[in-house]
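Board notes (copied after class):
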Amino acid sequence: MSQKALLYELDEKRFALSWNYCPMQRVMQVYLFRVVLVAIMSLGSFGFAEAQVSDQQLKLGQSLDKVYAYWRDAMVSRDYRAWHQVSATHRRVALQNRILSEKGQWPADIFNVPAAPPTLKGLKMLRARSKGMSAKSVYFGKVNFGAGAAPADNLLLVSFVYEGRGWKYDTAEFINLDNLKDVRAQIASGDLAYVDEQAFLPTGVKPPTPDEVAEAKYIAKVYSYCPGREVKVRVNRISKHRFQDNQQSEVIIGGARDGINEISYEIRDLPGYQGDDPITIRVYLMSQVEGIKPIKIYQYQTRQGEKPKAQDSAVFQVNGETAAKILGLR
């Protein structure tokens, strides 16, 4: 199995990892690997870019290493209590909500990932910075996911939040530099200007903890096709989604409900876009019964050249007939 195929399989394991294309500030064609459950890494020995890292960053980085090590031990040993202790509250609740929204098993599905966390051995820490209740560390080197050919040098950006008496793991991003070979060469030569851009800096803001949801009765997904646009969608005032210049679907947190469901959206052109492509927003019910196809229960779509609404709200309904179909009862 190739490394990219493995990453796709990880995405299909609904609570593991997602592989998205995402433009970063001032840079085109950056592949972003956002880890909502695990930053796939261990905390073995690794080199620091000592000439570039201050004593303050070095000390912070060493503290963050301990958080990683504890997290990895929890993942490998499938220790929920330890995982709970080392993970940021808002991230834990978000993951729990997603698992329950897909009718998974909580907390067992936390650990159902198809690849063991690889090591950080040989990676260099380029930056470790904190601001307020947040921190980010940046690593450079051959991040090995254990599949395919030997990896090239790429970046890992890892985020933390401060809770109680210490740092907790939040998220990590894998940034593939295959399409940014000039950036790769700059970093290798010691020019770290790229990792000093805004996208690599801690925000200083602690993300809010979402409300917890019960297990969904109906698994539902929101789909968007939005070339050149940003689309923000909210379903039942709980599930928030943001799409940018892509074709993508996301699980609706809380799922769909019997009867009336609410949906609202906002659409805007991204800077520099001058096209008139059609745009689509849909909601599907997803079945867990083999052979039952998804059911489209909402759609907003424009024609080529038609200007989309800047914002709107609507309702869609799950009635008895639709429920019976998706549950395989008729």
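Comment from the instructor: Confidence is low (pLDDT under 50) at residues 2-48. The two ends are 39 Å apart (CA to CA).
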